[in-house]
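Lab meeting minutes (informal)
Scribe: AK
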Amino acid sequence: MSSENAAQSGERNEHVWDVVVVGAGPAGSSAAYAAAVAGRRVLLLEKAELPRYKTCGGGIIGPSRDALPPGFELPLQDRVHAVTFSLNGRLTRTRRSKNMLFGLVNRQEFDQRLVEAAEAAGADVRTGVTVSRVEQHGPAVPDRRTVAVVLNDGEVVLARAVVGADGSASRIGAHVGVKLDQVDLGLEAEIPVPATVAEDWAGRILIDWGPLPGSYGWVFPKGDTLTVGVISARGEGAATKRYLEDFIARLGLAGFEPAISSGHLTRCRAEDSPLSRGRVLVCGDAAGLLEPWTREGISFALRSGRLAGEWAVRIAEAQDAVDARRQALNYAFAIKAGLGVEMGVGQRMLAVFKRRPRLLHTVMTGFRPAWNVFAGITRGSTTLGEVVRTSPLARRALGALDKA
């Protein structure tokens, strides 16, 4: 190598980030935070300008709260102490709790604060930046320890490890080869309401088991706005839209003009789907990590993002491909041993719910141990996986439901 080339190579390597995270949602911000607090040079890339709207109910359950950075102050819009359950508008029953079950946030504010926490930990943030692809071989990659993140304008950002957290339509997920097992369509409306209507909903949410197999609707109050949405399997777009329209009308909200109407796809990974490729990891929606029955994704994003950031640090330190692969496998094991178990139970619950929604509604509203489990999960004192692992009664009940 000539002295000129050597000088250019040395200059280039000075600009190699330890960890580059793509996507500044809860998963990406958590990954950037975890890597930054470990003292590494971290760059967080986001295609949108922040803060930005995100279609999401915004429910912060216990596992989400427990995965937040120390001292993080939740921008709560409401605190939930009661849940009303209905079966496509019928058999309505409300269960209440003296203690808060979970909190509700607006995602734009919540996500912005997570990005600020990552910045405070030392991460650099660039917004308005779209990633075209990542390369682990070829002329853009100076050595085997480096990943090239190629932006739409042709700029190349170099890193020792990359975390893909760029949502359910992830380009990084495509690079890794993420395989999906379940895709659902969620439709949502942000509906401003008068104070008298808002007061009626304060502290209480509604969960309505819907008319389509595996579907349900929700009302989440956030001050003077109600977040109203429904979700069902992809391929039922027209029926899902009718469900939302009927749901809003049934609630007496049809006369109020939504401030925002939006939709999105949620995607669950197949059990054998990869979580890494070389020095690239995926987490959150980009990895297809969410609870299949409720499609709850915030806690999965926060928890998988934190793990991805921690293991990305180890990958960045790896001196060869073998060590990098070992660390990536350890990350996959950590995900599967925790979140993977919860997803497995959620898949079983969804299968039961599709076949027997009325039975599940009856159990949830009329069987106190079932309500206690629901409350424990929302508060964060347990998880679906832990309940099944530690409770013989829960295992027998789930087995009976499997056969129902």
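Next up, CB showed the second protein from the same session:
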Amino acid sequence: MGTGFLDNLKYRAAIEPRHVVLSEGTSVRVQEAAAEASRSALARLTLLGPEREIRQGLSKFDCDQQDISVLDPRRSGKLDQYFEEYMRIRGHKAPDVQTARSIVTNVLGHAAMMVRMGDADGTIGGATNTTADTIRTFLQIVGREPGCSLVSAFFIMVSEEARPVLGEAVLFADCALVVEPDAEQLAIIAESTGKSARALLGVEPKVAFLSFSTAGSGSHARADRVREAVSIARRRQPEMIIPYELQFDAAVDEIIQKRKLPAGETCGIPNVFIFPGLEAANIGYKIAERAGRMKAVGTVLQGLAKPANDLSRGCAASDILDMIAVTCLQAQATAKAASVE
């Protein structure tokens, strides 16, 4: 089942290929993923790093190298332009000239600048760089989406079962960034993840806030925080938010919903799950992976001005390929939103 969903994800991305820059072009896994993406016309790709080394690496894989661009940031014709823009947006932090130039020459910084300046539609990093370095670069250079005060993260959880309990694919948030969100931040995470569900799952979002309480059954400050988040999110996005905080069993079983919700109500099965904090979310997605036979695709970032996503340093080439498709779909959604405005 999971393979079918991921194949469909790639098919949708390839309908309108976008330009994705892969910052860690010397990684063999990145090269393998780029070769496969090129064969399937999934995206227009640029790999960053020394051209000779990357071309030699790509030659080991079955692909037409003419379809893959390679750029050594040290020889980029846009270094001065990127440097000037970096100083404009980060000059208040008083970086010295040498430091600023090294940042825009570094593969992560150069990739982020390409996205910021419209020379690429999205970027992916983290196969060889740490999550801290990767996300910090994205935040500083790509910046936040206008009107969104919080950058958060989610995983696409894809079922490998023939009859999945949660559906073929759902989103879990925030599993990577916001450690202890307050009610307002939980509401923002829910809104962002609902929009991501539309873009990536191709469904209307149905968002559940998870708690140890269902519809007021528990009295505690932590449960109160989740209930407040539900109330905030419902005011802003009533069509996508389930109107109660839910324990996990009530979220995924309509029989239990009838027992626990007021007047025997049911609210349907969600496709977006908002966890009360990073601790619960991280544990939850790993249980779903190891015991629930689900594949976690991510880390997918949201709330940035343009698509930029983080990989695990333990990722396989197939994981990078999945993230190329995700980044393309995010870029398609960003372009669509811009055209409406």
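CB comment: The longest strand covers residues 294-302.
No objections, moving on.
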